[in-house]
Amino acid sequence: MKKTIIAAVSLIFAAVLVFAALPASALGETVDLSYVRQNESGQGYRWDNINDVLYLTDINLSTTADFGIKLPAGATVFVEGDCRVTANRYAISCLGSVTFKGTGKLTAEGGECGMYFYGTNRDHKILFLGGDYAVKGENTAIRSDGAELSFCGGKLSLEGKTAVRGVDVTVSGCELTAAGAIRASHLLSVNGANVSAFDENGPALYSDGRIGLENVRIEAGADGNSLSAADGYAGESAIRLTSTYKRVRTSVLFGEGTPGWVDTLVFIGAGVGVVAALTVPFAVKANKKRKLYAKLNSENSDKGEAKKK
Fold first, then answer.
1. Cα–Cα–Cα angle for 26, 27, 29, rounded to 5 degrees
2. 101 C-beta neighbours (distance < 10 Å), count
3. 273 and 209 in one domain?
């Protein structure tokens, strides 16, 4: 009887340890912050309501619900560590503008879209400024119905029947690999970015409006094994764009439009000013002392001459 009780207690204790070790999000719960009004936190995430920032730190959210994480408009997502979000339809979704940044990696997988931004307001912006993103969707990896998609920093690996689908799509200053087409209904712009894209069913890059390629070296072909240098893009299924943009450090003091070397001159000038401020008073004081000593010596000399007479 005693052994039976001990065995039962041991089993219960082991079960408690197992469930305690599981992230709360692994139980299949959607993190719905779409109308959040206060600070919230859970296993692997923390919402700072005052600053509208969602911190993801090694989150492991896997749910059979339609949505993984629902973001409020105007949110900033800061990615830290190794984060993973998987949902039945949309891993990450939002109605308005969102900014993604950080130093970690975020893997987002959805049955329809890895990331879906369903607002139709074209004044909204979806910004990727830093971090490592692996996004996969059965239909589309990243889709925006209105907000401008701007991939401006970090590294992105996208996979779907369509890798990117948006109205205005801008790719600059980042590294983007797409298994699936990059499509825009209005403007598709690539400027100074490293991009590799392939679509076995059609053009790797497509726009109903205009495609602009600037500050890049173009290689295109039928697939990744047949790429060759090209002067422009003519609708090939595979393309590799290599940045030729020479980045100039921007002034920290004066911002965009001013080169970084101006800061150096300012600091040197400030240093000279500090040295001058410290040394000039001493020099002036020393000069006054020399004049005083000279005057006293002259007066003593005159008195000596007068006594001799």
1. 95
2. 17
3. no
Q: Which domain does 273 fall in, by range?
A: 251-309
Own/partner long-range contacts of 145-151 (Cβ < 8 Å, ≥24 apart)? 145/117, 145/118, 145/119, 145/120, 146/117, 146/119, 146/120, 146/121, 146/122, 147/96, 147/97, 147/117, 147/119, 147/121, 147/122, 148/122, 148/124, 149/117, 150/125, 150/126, 151/176, 151/193
In a domain, 2, yes or no: no
Final residue belonging to a domain, choices 247, 263, 296:
247
Residues 147 and 32 in one domain: yes
Q: Which of 196, 267, 276, 278 is nearest to 237 (CA)?
A: 196
Residue 7 covered by a domain: no
Please state the rounded mean pLDDT for residues 101-111. 98
36 touches 43 (CB < 8 A): no
Q: What predicted TM-score, i.e. pTM, was given to this entire model?
A: 0.74
- Of 46-55, 61-70, 281-290, which gets the smallest average pLDDT? 281-290
CA distance 254 to 267: 13
Q: Are residues 174 and 266 in the same domain?
A: no
Query: Do 232 and 258 fall within a single domain?
Result: no
Q: Are 165 and 188 in contact (CB under 8 A)?
A: no
Who wins on pLDDT, 288 or 225?
225
